[in-house]
């Protein structure tokens, strides 16, 4: 099981998740908007509280590679560090929960016929992670957030 530094340097910074992690998921949605417009919503982490269910930002200085941020998802406190911040293309980070669980999260944007395909990928490792927070729960969370993002971007048009 890779440590957090390895996950950050060897996975997130290289545009990949840990495919060998006990829990992984990839989900995507097609949004009727340009990558630039989708990016404006994604890069505004302070604004996520208005559209992302269960998201609460606790500390953020800047959305820049290497910068840390603290947040909570459905009340669970998380510490994360941005890896890739590529406007209109990718927002990724690594993070920990309770110092036991480690994740790599990627949000990748791709123009597709005048619209934007947003793909979320995540790998999650830690003790009993399959039992405590399995793949189905991870997928459901991603799909809820992607649907909320689609609504937020398309309703703002």
Automatic annotation (TrEMBL):
It comes from the Bacteria. It comes from Actinomadura monticuli. This is SRPBCC family protein. InterPro entries: Polyketide_cyclase/dehydratase (IPR019587), START-like_dom_sf (IPR023393).
């Amino acid at each position: 099981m890779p440590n957090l530094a390895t996950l950050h340097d060897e996975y997130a910074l290289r545009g990949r998740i840990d495919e060998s992690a006990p829990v992984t998921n990839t989900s995507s949605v097609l949004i009727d908007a340009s990558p630039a417009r989708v990016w404006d919503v994604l890069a505004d982490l302070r604004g996520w509280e208005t559209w992302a269910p269960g998201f609460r930002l606790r500390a953020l200085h800047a959305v820049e590679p290497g910068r840390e941020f603290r947040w909570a998802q459905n009340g669970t406190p998380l510490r994360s560090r941005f890896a890739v911040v590529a406007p209109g293309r990718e927002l990724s980070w690594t993070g920990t929960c309770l110092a036991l669980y480690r994740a790599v999260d990627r949000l990748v944007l791709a123009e597709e016929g005048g619209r934007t395909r947003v793909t979320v990928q995540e790998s999650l490792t830690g003790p009993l992670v399959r039992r405590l927070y399995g793949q189905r729960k991870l997928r459901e969370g991603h799909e809820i957030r992607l649907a909320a993002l689609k609504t937020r971007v398309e309703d703002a048009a």
